[in-house]
Structures are given as C-alpha cells and as structure tokens.
C-alpha cells in the first residue's frame, strides 16, 4: 500500500494525475447540469482531450459514487441486433438519465447514450455472453433508489424484446442538450533556471531517461478502441475459394502494415471470423453472398479504399493481389 502513490513522486506522473482530476471535475459540473455522461466523454474522446484508458475509472467514480446511479451488470443471454425498441421507449422516460457500458469483444469498452440511435451503431450487435452494464440516474428531480433500480430492470426487458408497463415515475420530457466543450486547464510548467540546463554530454545523457518516462506516463495504455460499422463486401466470384482467401490475406496484411494501430475484423453470418481460411473450408460462401468487415482502432483511415480492394479480392480478378513472392507485403495504402 505504501507504494500506491509513487506515480505522484515524479513531475510527469503528478501532472498526468492533475490533468485527470481537472477533467473529472469539469465532468461533475456538466453531468450536474443535465448532460449525459456518454455524450460528454465521447465528445472529449473525439477531440483527443481525453484518453480511453481514463473512462473506466470515471464510470464508477462519477455515476455511482458521486451521482448515485443505480446499475446492473449482465452477460447477454442472446445476441441483440437492434436497439429500436429501447430508443423508442426512452424517448418518453425523460425523468431518468441512462448510460450504457458495453464490453465489445474486439473494440473494448464502449460507453453510449442509449437515447442516441447513432451511438448504438458502434456497439451493435450486442454479442451473446458479453458484458453489458446499464446505469440509471435522476434527470432533474431526485428519484428513489427503488425507482432507478426498477428502470434498469425494465431497460433490460425492453432490450430483450419484452413488454413493460410504463411507470409514471419515468415519464417526462427529455432534455435534448448536446455536450458542451470542456476546456482543460493547462498545467503550469516549472521555471527552469540557467543552472539546471545541462552543459555537458554527460549531463545531457542523465536527463534523457526522465524525458522518456514523461512520454510514457503521459501517453498511457489505451484500454479500448473505436470500431466502425460493418461494411458489406459481395462475393462476385463463383465461390469464395482459396485464391480469394489468399488475396484477402494480402490486402489485410497491407492495410495493417500501413496502419499498425488498426485491425480488420471479418464477419460472416453474424459470427466473428478469426481465421479467414475458415471461409474457404466451410464451402458456404458462394456467388452473391456478403461478407462483412469492420475496422477497429483510433484514427481510422482508408476504409473505403479497403472495401474496394476487398471487393476485388472477392471477385474473379483476385489474382492481381497474388503476384510477387509469398512474403511480399503489398503497397496498397
């Protein structure tokens, strides 16, 4: 226990913690004013002013500890393809603020405002056995814990397609407010005196490790990724045979080589395909059958170009990707 605060003993660690606390404090104000937690953090993530590894700790600290949200974690009994019913129901439940945290098997933690249909696109379909946590808090007038817990239970029922009798405690106008920009207070840089500037190579060498540590601590591990919607690639070859499989391998290898932080996920009949060879072995993927793909990571690029190449790789023209040595990485992107 005595070493738990060691990160604060260095300037880089202290400043990282300070920036995190300032961000959390700003979120307290916004959530208290009626903004949805998911809307706020997703805007900050898209702007780059918040890192994904920071989000997980905020969920409990702010929603549960600070604002007293009810919550229930649940492993999905079945896969859920659509959120239309839950979006429609929540349009009337204006007295309750909902936040959903879904642990996507490839993209990691996705936090969303379930009233916003566009935010569901990143998470759907919700896969069987994956973890989903639903948080419910008061929006405006403070509600009893029993009402909030009941709202969480009803949320799950609707998500699974069951009917729920509306409760008057839920009903009210929904405050549709877009999240405002959180301005992060800059951390003051310490003044450096002339005496502290290294004047010899030996002194410069001694200063280098501190700079490297500063970079590592400030960046931090990224706990989860963004994921695109699934895009369709129609098989136009007579069937998706071994040549098409090898072409797709080369295309995906080229994409990953260009964008090392991105991953290409393949889906067939709503199942995640970990080994592309399985598409050939099954013998089920014939002419006119769609194969789906999505891209996971941060700063996602060239998805449309990837889709065009995959389409060609699933066509009779696949051989263009197979020229050259076996271990050659194609320069496609």
Task: Pick out its properties.
Histidine-containing Protein, Chain: A, 2 domains, 5-stranded antiparallel beta sheet, 10 helices, 9 strands
In short, what is this structure?
With 333 residues, this protein is α+β, with helices and mostly antiparallel strands. It has ten helices and nine strands.
User: How are helices and strands ordered from N to C?
Assistant: HHHEHEEHEHHEEHEEHEH
Tally the structural domains: 2
Task: Return Rg in Å.
Answer: 25 Å
Tell me about the biggest sheet?
5 strands, antiparallel
Overall average pLDDT? 79
Estimate the strand proportion.
15-25%
Decide which structural class fits the backbone.
alpha+beta
**End-to-end distance:** 49 Å
Query: Which oligomeric state applies?
Result: single chain
> What's the count of strands?
9
Count helical runs: 10
- The helicity comes to 25-40%
Q: Which blocks of ≥5 consecutive residues have pLDDT under 50? A: 179-224
Large-scale geometry: globular
Q: Can you tell me about this structure?
A:
With 333 residues, the chain is α+β, with helices and mostly antiparallel strands. It folds into two domains: 6-159, no CATH class; 228-321, HPr-like (Histidine-containing Protein, Chain: A, 2-Layer Sandwich). The chain has ten helices and nine strands. It has helices at 11-32, 37-47, 55-66, 84-90, 117-120, 145-159, 201-219, 242-258, 277-282, 303-313, and strands spanning 70-75, 96-104, 108-112, 131-138, 226-227, 231-234, 263-268, 271-273, 290-297. Strands 5, 6, 7, 8 and 9 form a five-stranded antiparallel β-sheet that branches. The chain has a four-stranded antiparallel β-sheet with strand order 1-4-2-3. A hairpin with a 3-residue loop joins β2 (96-104) and β3. α1 runs parallel beside α7. The longest helix is centred in the N-terminal third of the chain and has 22 residues, at 11-32. The protein is globular and about 65 Å long.
